[in-house]
Amino acid sequence: MALLEIKNLDVRYIMKERQVLACDDVSLSVEEGDSIGIVGESGSGKSTMAMCVLGLLPKDTTRTSGEILFQGEDLVKLTEQGFAKLRWKSLSAVFQKSMNSLSPVHKVCKQMFDIYRVHTPGADENACKAMAGALLDKVNLPQSVLNLYPHQLSGGMIQRISIALCLMFDPALIILDEATTALDVVTESQILRELTKLREASGITCMMITHNMAVVAGSCDKVAVMYAGRLVETGMTARVLTEPRHPYTQGLLASFPTFEGKKQALKGIPGSLPDLSGEIPGCVFAYRCPHAAERCFNEKPVMTEHEPGWKSACWLGPR
Ligand SMILES: Nc1ncnc2c1ncn2[C@@H]1O[C@H](COP(=O)(O)OP(=O)(O)OP(=O)(O)O)[C@@H](O)[C@H]1O
Ligand SMILES: [Mg+2]
User: Fold this and answer.
1) Residue with CA at minimum distance from ligand 1 atom 11
2) Among protein residues, the one whose CA lies closest to atom 3 of ligand 1
3) Same-domain check for residues 65 and 211
4) How far apart are alpha carbons 188 and 21 in whole angstroms?
5) How confident is the prediction along the chain (319 residues), in pLDDT tens digits per residue?
6) Domain enclosing residue 74, as ranges
7) Residues around the ion ligand 2 (C-beta < 5 A)
8) Is residue 190 domain-shared with residue 44, that is, in the same domain?
9) Are the C-beta atoms of 171 and 92 separated by less than 8 Å?
10) Residues facing 67 on adjacent strands
11) Residue 20 CA: which ligand is closest?
12) Which of 55, 229, 271, 277 has the highest count of CB atoms within 10 angstroms of its CB?
């Protein structure tokens, strides 16, 4: 059984005058020990999917259908109390703006100890200190940061603390939503290396939402490509990045500069995302796809497996 099995997930944001279908029939399987990258341009529904898994979408303005089976339990039906038991212990997340998730008026130690005590009733000062010390070691931070306030730390140090916090209870799955995007490349690569080591040592499963293909190439064994709320391609990173099959994945990869070969202008993908408040009967990418045929505008393509574990949703098949 997969650790996380998302089945036909639809998520709609309900606004006064319109609705946005941010996740449209998304099905994705994450096995224990996987490190899966979720890529796709801005607005394609990556964070919405992650927030839905974490139970963090506002219930009054979103409508969700489908199933999200995590360790066999359907998260779509889970109550807030149910999520409170899962979060931190089994499911954890780090977001891009971690600075905002730490309290500015408390020292790092207090914030770490408080979280620990909520989930470990009766933990004394020594147990808290031992826990904090071990976590800081894991993310390569000195013990001295415990006595500092968040504003006294650099962005990279705060991201490390957020990663440390999310590892506190050895969760089965951690979701990193652009957790290293705002960092300089040196700090980013250090954090990613540490994360890979931690993953290898403790078998944590990782979902990494990123815009950076280099992060996917270096840190993820699998990749899922999203466009306009739909998954368009999933597979092993080594295969998808070298022989992308969906025209959107091909366009996305052609939008990244390479260091090798002759200098050439970046291709990019002309056009922009379709309006997600309207019904799109065919392929969501058809209007920007250089290969689109008539069928692509009228019929929704089905995810088809071309090789074990490698799927794409394109009527024109592998190209
Ligand atoms: N709270 C909200 N209310 C209404 N619409 C929203 C809300 N949050 C996101 N959306 C819409 O849902 C769609 C998907 O947004 P989402 O944030 O999931 O994309 P993303 O892939 O994470 O983008 P980015 O790479 O920029 O973070 C977008 O059209 C966005 O405008
Ligand atoms: Mg996002």
Assistant:
1) 22
2) 13
3) yes
4) 32
5) 899 999 999 999 999 989 999 999 999 999 999 999 999 999 999 999 999 999 999 988 999 999 999 998 999 999 999 998 899 899 999 987 766 788 999 999 999 999 999 989 889 999 999 999 999 988 889 999 999 999 999 888 898 899 899 999 989 999 999 988 877 788 788 888 888 888 888 888 999 999 988 899 999 999 999 999 999 999 999 999 999 999 999 999 988 777 676 777 777 788 888 999 988 999 999 999 999 999 999 999 999 998 999 999 999 876 5
6) 4-90+171-312
7) 47
8) yes
9) yes
10) 7
11) 1
12) 229
